[in-house]
Amino acid sequence: MEISALASGSSGNCFYVGDGKNSVLIDAGISCKQIVERLGMINKSPENINAIFITHEHTDHIRGADVFARTFSVPIFATKKTSQSGFLCSDGEKVNKIKNNETVKIGNLNVETFSKSHNASDPVFFKIEAKKKVSVITDLGYPCQNVKDAISDSDFICLESNHDINMLEQGPYPYFLKKWIKSDSGHLSNLQSSICVLEYARKKLKNIMLSHLSEINNTPKIALSSFKILRERYDLDTKISLSTREKPTHLIKI
User: Fold this and answer.
1) Which domain holds residue 78?
2) Where is 167: in which H helix or E strand?
3) CATH number, residue 176
């Protein structure tokens, strides 16, 4: 399988996952033009994208879905409430409703939907399987049982590591925003993320891509440093990488 974060952060999120024959986008939160350009940077063609799966209706996850879906005749998959709460596509026939715990087969890719906790109408995350298992888990307030199970069951995870709690508390955000970010419907901190992996990862987990880092309340160095806690697990041999908002990660093959 192949994975790249085309973009990840509050300004836009889009992940590429494929098996060499079929491929999907998890979210399309940057413009269609940017998606095409960034796919080109990892030597992938937009014509070969088979589907877009939407986690929730916030703009930084759906911005490019409409134009990309119509331009390249790609179906969009989203829960009913998500499709009702955000503008996904002007061609309604391209929007397919999915349910939690439902699996959609895209060629050899099995894409399974799981509920999560976030301030949205019906937020979900996805696990994609084709021999190996990849989970894309961002925008969640706390690691619910679905998240714990996915971490235990995956070979590769893109996992939110949004903020450093001290930077958030001492930073410029107003109180109400800080309170929401720290809440069970907000975003996962570096500490929450690393502890969850420490407790629930199995030795099959070989790659973790830290995602959705806050530009204001986090730094790559601090996020990576938080995951040094994994050294306590002598059975884990896991590579930690970072995704960014400015450019795609290189294509990682597992």
Assistant:
1) 2-253
2) helix 165-170
3) 3.60.15.10
Beta strands 51-53 and 23-26: pairing type? parallel
Amino acid 90 reads S
For 42, 170, 240, 243, the CA distances from 16, given in Å and listed in that order, are 10, 35, 18, 12
Report pLDDT for 5: 98
Distance separating alpha carbons of residues 182 and 179, to the nearest angstrom:
5
Report the alpha-carbon distance of residue 148 to residue 169 in Å, rounded.
27
Tokens encoding 227: 């995951």
Domain count, the chain: 1
Q: What is the pTM of this model?
A: 0.97
Q: How far apart are CA 237 and CA 41, in angstroms?
A: 29
pLDDT digits (tens, 9 = 90+) for 143-178: 999 999 999 999 999 999 999 999 999 999 999 999
Q: Which helix (H) or strand (E) holds 126?
A: strand 124-130
